[in-house]
Amino acid sequence: MTDATPTAGPEEAVRVLRDDHERLLTVVGQCATAVTAEWDGDSVTDRERVVPPFRRALDGSGALSRLPRALADAVTATGRPMAAPPVAAPPYVVVTGEGVVLRANLGDGRLVVLLRAFEVDRGGDGDGDGGDGGDSEPHRYRRIDGVEIEAEIV
Q1: Rounded to two decimals, what is the model's pTM?
Q2: For residues 143 and 34, what is the distance between their CA atoms, to the nearest angstrom?
């Protein structure tokens, strides 16, 4: 017996996020912009100047608590079952140096969505101390234009 439930790919999850959660994505972008307003230039090398303030901004704006609903809608769009309802905490919602990662366990894999708000130039080994014997550069975080959505089922 085969499963007759149709399933869609990650592109359908992206479509739902763009179409049904446009305001939420705008707020995520606004939070990222607010973080960069505190920087001295257009980039920083200290992850602590990106992730904790971004998480605080997302929480303060209400976006953090709305991200699990967006994730659930994205999963529904794929036609796959979700193992458990998501919450605004790891492993479902994780704030990173690139943006926000949304993850949901599905019946046949995992949906992973990145709401990218920053680019990370991973120059060198990332420690900036030259410990690799060369002139290693630390990671550099920059705000990108808008919020890019990347999704995959793994």
Answers
A1: 0.87
A2: 10
What's the number of CA atoms in the CB half-sphere (13 Å) around residue 1? Answer: 2
Six-digit token pair at 67?
Answer: 């991200």
Read off the tokens for 122.
């991973």
Positive/negative CA dihedral, 122, 17, 51, 33? positive
Query: Two tokens at 86?
Result: 């998501």
Rounded Cα distance, 39 and 114, in Å: 23
| DSSP annotation of 91 | T
Distances (CA, A) of 146 to 31, 68, 77, 115: 11, 21, 23, 10
Determine contact, residues 80/154, Cβ cutoff 8 Å: no
pLDDT digits (tens, 9 = 90+) for 50-74: 999 999 999 999 999 999 999 999 9
